């Protein structure tokens, strides 16, 4: 396969050619070829006392010492301010059977937790029934990055929770892992 030549446009004010802007739809299409897992980030809203949460597919481990994880949240998220206001939050690693739950938590508004089964984590956050694992965290740092915020969180407690395969997001849709 031959490398794709860089697309350059006319020189700007400094006389040097500069790269053409990246088309957002092409960007999404190409990066969609990278399979990711899906997590639900949950907390208890400190104002209402009700569970709140959102789905994310940009989650990763960051460090063993100290134990850190990271995830990205869109600036347009209406759920993140509720989760962020809580002292702690819980990252639930979703299983392949939780596609509908992921969609519910990714949607705007509505009663996201109506009819959902969950139990309290050690610090009182929702651990969703059927989640493969849970990771209880506090926010360590936030980094503005384009239309998202990168949240780095310190892990305080974690455990495996249920058996099964992971919920996978690939090319704009959900799938499953076939070993």
Task: Give your account of this protein's structure.
The structure is a single chain. The chain has one domain: Electron Transport, Fmn-binding Protein, Chain A (Pnp Oxidase, Chain A), CATH 2.30.110.10. The chain is built from three helices and 14 strands.
The major pleated sheet works out as: 7 strands, antiparallel
CATH topology: Pnp Oxidase, Chain A
Give the helix level as a range of percent: 10-25%
**Overall outline:** globular
What CATH first level would be assigned?
Mainly Beta
The number of domains is: 1
- The average pLDDT value, as a whole number, equals 89
* Class inferred from helices and paired strands: mainly beta
Beta content comes to 35-45%
**Radius of gyration of CA atoms, rounded to a whole number:** 19 Å
- Tell me the number of strands: 14
Q: How far is the first residue's CA from the last residue's CA?
A: 28 Å
Name the helix and strand elements from N-terminus to C-terminus, one letter apiece: EEHEEEEEHEHEEEEEE
Low-confidence spans: pLDDT under 50, at least 5 residues?
Answer: none
CATH superfamily: Electron Transport, Fmn-binding Protein, Chain A
